[in-house]
Amino acid sequence: MTDEETCAQLYRDLCDASMRKDAAGMAAPLADDYVLVHMTGMRQSGRAYIEAVLDGTLNYYSTEHDSVDVRISPDGEHAAICARSRVSAAVFGGGRHTWRLQQDLRAERRDGTWLLTESRASTY
Asked: Looking at residue 58, which CATH number applies to its domain?
């Protein structure tokens, strides 16, 4: 698998594990210092994100990926991922809705393994 394919798969794996409420699966692609920046600007650590999914604050039901574009840096150690997906979710006490969610993610190769370090959510 190329670095681009590996990094795209990190995003897909996180989405799949989030829908299953699989804590270990969600943690696997995340660096220890991972941070999620929600559309509201709220920042969440990876651990807090996983807890919010497990406790039902964030509920993901389905994800249809429109595109997952990856750019690897010239040093081969960093990646920028722009993922656009239609996500059926109910979050922060709101009703279920399908969001056109764009995630601008950063990944780094650490000790030979690609890990997500940041994700910024917006709509498209």
From this structure: 3.10.450.50
State the virtual CA torsion across 96, 98, 104, 109 in degrees, nearest 10.
Answer: 70
Length of the chain: 124
Spell out a b/e string for 63-88, using b for 16 or more CB atoms within 10 Å of the CB, else e: beeeebebebeeeeebbebebbbebe
Q: What is the pTM of this model?
A: 0.96
Q: How many domains does the chain have?
A: 1
Which structural domain range is residue 102 located in? 3-123
Q: Can you tell me the distance from the alpha carbon of 105 to that of 113, in angstroms, rounded to the nearest whole number?
A: 16
Q: What is the pLDDT of residues 95-105, one digit of tens each?
A: 999 999 999 99
The confidence score (pLDDT) of residue 49 equals: 98
Is 104:120 a contact under the CB 8 Å cutoff? Answer: yes
> 3 and 76 in contact (C-beta within 8 Å)?
yes
Contact 16, 24 (CB under 8 A): no
